[in-house]
Amino acid sequence: MGLLKSIAKIKSNKKEDVQEHITSFEEERKTYYEDGVASSKTCQGRSENLQASLDAIYHKFENKCKREDAEQIKLKQPYVTELKGIKTLMLNKDEELKREKERLLETDSKISKLKSDIVNVRRNPQDFGISVERRSTSKFWIGLFLLCFLTVYIFIFYISTSFSAFFRTFDPSTELFGGMFYPQALQEAYDAGPLELGFIIFIPFVFFGLGYLIHIFTHKKSIGNIFKVILLFITTFIFDALLAYLIDEKLYNLNKTFEDPEFSISVAFSSPSFWVIIFAGFVSYIIWGLVFDIVMKEHADRDKIENYVFSLKSDINNQIQLTHLHKESILEIENDIRDYRHRCTELENIIEGFILPIRNYKALSSEYLQGWQEVITSEIVLGLEQTKNYLNECRQVYDKHITKLDLDTDDYQNKVYTKTL
């Protein structure tokens, strides 16, 4: 029962406050009306005096508003609430700004570490879990150097021997070396036609293919691959033997006498030049294949490092993008904080200033004008047209007064006068 009585008492007090406020404002309107009547009677309703009277009642109303602290607190409450909310937002933005700056520092630290890793992984790849021989770089370049010279040798050898074996006609002065290496092979093959030229140019690639297949088959060790490598060796050896047989036969026939037997496989096997031609080519592309295998393996080790470096560079690019995002976020937050601080300054100036309830003043001043005009229409003896002109002049003075004070609007209830420095 006590609680119900308290609630009822609070409601009753609220109703009394509202009623008291309404009564007080109505009494104030009546007072302004009466003051308008009295002032108009004093000056016979002249519009020249109305301007000064309106200025006087405005200053009176303004000073009254400044003195009414309770009313000012009530009017300023929305601004106080907004100020508290903005200060809370500023605290949150400060924390967010701090976190973004910490993230930016972490990202910059990661970028520095990744750049350092790029340098260190080439020096000590084992520290990064990459199993690479320390001499892999030197072995790669040495192997590549040898591979280039072996490639040139194989081209020269097989272009010469192929042309000599299949197309060339030997003269009696031709020796073993001249039969193997023939400087005019390309020129004469070109003169003979495109088929001959193509044959002798592309035949070295058969042996390069052998070296490449050795690398492929030995990369994945199995019985089948070993069998394939052996078969390749046998095939290319037979082809080398065929070239050696044809060249050695031509050389043999140049120096053959009637007592010498016909050239045959048995004669070829017993001829040193036959075996020299075979091993000059066969051994060279075997060595080429082994060196090629070494170079490819060392290149694979280098690829491990380069792939790791590529992944580090990719991570750096990702971190740089994050850096840009963090910087944009920091700039945006700083702009928000700057706007909040500016608004806080505005609100603090509003709170330290005062608020004029313009609708109240317009209501009261219009009562004053009505009282002023009441005297003109009822107590001053004038003609109809002259009375109308008086009333219009007074109305113009009032409108000018309202416009000059910037009160001629219905868009807002109160006019804010901020603190001035």
Describe, in plain words, how this protein is organized in 3D.
The chain is mainly alpha-helical and 421 residues long. It has helices spanning 2-43, 47-67, 69-123, 136-166, 176-180, 185-192, 194-202, 204-219, 223-254, 265-269, 272-352, 358-378, 384-404; strands at residues 354-357, 414-417. It has 2 domains: 2-68 and 353-417, no CATH class; 128-305, no CATH class. α8 (204-219) crosses α11 (272-352). It is rod-shaped.
Amount of beta strand: under 5%
**Most strands sheet:** 2 strands, antiparallel
- What is the residue-mean pLDDT, rounded to a whole number? 76
Total count of domains = 2
Supply the number of helical segments.
13
The best one-word shape is rod-shaped
Q: Gyration radius, to the nearest Å? A: 55 Å
* Uncertain residue ranges: 1-23
Order the strands across the largest sheet as they lie in space.
Answer: 1-2
N- and C-termini, Cα separation: 55 Å
Fraction of helical residues: over 70%
How many β-strands, per DSSP? Answer: 2
What letter string, H or E per element, gives the SSE order? Answer: HHHHHHHHHHHEHHE
Going by helix content, strand content and strand pairing, the class is mainly alpha
